[in-house]
From TrEMBL:
Keyword Hydrolase (UniProt): no
Alphabetical keyword list: Membrane, Transmembrane, Transmembrane helix
Membrane-spanning ranges: 12-38, 50-68, 109-127, 133-160, 189-210, 222-242
Organism (species): Streptomyces xiangluensis
Protein name: ABC transporter permease
The organism's place on the tree of life at top rank: Bacteria
Pfam families: ABC2_membrane_6
Amino acid sequence: MWIRSGMTYRTSFAITVFGNLLLSGLDFVGILLMFSQVDSLGGWTLPEVAFLYGLSVTAFGITDLLLGSSQVLGARIRDGSFDTLLVRPVPVLAQVGADQFPLRRFGRVIQGSLVLGWALFAVDVDWSAPKVLLVPVMLVSGAAIFGALFVAGAAFQFLAQDAAEVQSAFTYGGTTMLQRPPTLFGKDLVRGVTFVLPLAFVNWLPASYVLERPYPLDLPTWVTFMSPLVAGVCCALAGVVWRVGLRSYRSTGS
């Protein structure tokens, strides 16, 4: 229904998608401006940073397209309209993801994919079968990890009721951080996003293996292949948190 609504005025839809693509591309323009003044960023070349950027933006864009509408959940909880989702014979989380489905966000996926495609050709890598396989694994696992963050953030809104910005700090803020090399950040932060909130498994760890770059933490090589396992654990925990949040919902009382 929301897709049909958005496609009613196709010229407007195309302009909106194109505008969304351009706006999301401003982050990469900022990276290009930095590299106009330096040859490397934290020891990483432009194609290598573009590789990180493309992986992060594409994985996040897929999740933002499917679950980005969860940010309006707090407003539905506050005005009581969330009750309408509970009486329909469809999983509530699926309805939350489809609520006001913004197909225009597909522009972010396109933009990230274009940068990633260029980086794959430009980066200086001795490709092997494990490295080639890691690229789609990173995209799928990264989208799942971001999805777990969106779901957990949505569940938190049952408690806070106005926590969209808190959710954005971890989702949008997380993808922005992952667009830069891990060598730019302090080791305490790198430890936090590796062992506590495992965003590093979206691209930092597996990309370090692909590009043969040293990771700021001394970790065994096999850790770089754990993204699917980490994504599965994150999704399972997010599912538990979502069910707990959903059971705690008490409506507005009106």
